[in-house]
Amino acid sequence: MAGTATTAGLEQLKALINKGAEEGYGIGALLGMAAEALEPGRVVFSLAPRTDFSNPLGTVHGGVLSTLLDSAMGCAVHTSLPEGAGYTTLELKVNFVRAVPLEGGRLTCEGTTVHVGRKVATAEGRIVNADGKLVAHGTTTCMIFPPATDQ
């Protein structure tokens, strides 16, 4: 798998997101995420905060921000995988930089791969608010499950 140029993961992700846009699919549909960009090794998702995203202090709950980061970073890895390969998050590290008000406008999260190997991939992500200010950033380590023919 290492060094193999492929768009299979990217094409699979595009098909899944297009289907989700029509029918609603998974966590992205639940939170109202929109795919802004899907490229090899790079994904951009956005979402608009809602009142049901609030924590007891009335700002966006950190779990929503973590989910947005996990989704963008994991999908960035997904775009780099060959056909039949899978992945799962092994580790997620999130740094919260500033509180996000519920009425603060759309959040945009960019996830990019740092390394994609045969068994492990790493990625990083950044969330900015509607003013372009950083609100959270993180890293992930993903385990890669190779296609059955590569095992």
From TrEMBL:
Name of the protein in its database record: Thioesterase superfamily protein
Family designation: Belongs to the thioesterase PaaI family.
Keyword Hydrolase: yes
An example molecular function term from Gene Ontology annotations: fatty acyl-CoA hydrolase activity
Keywords carried by this UniProt record: Hydrolase
Stretches that traverse the bilayer: none
UniProt domain Thioesterase: residue ranges: 58-136
Species of provenance: Actinomadura verrucosospora
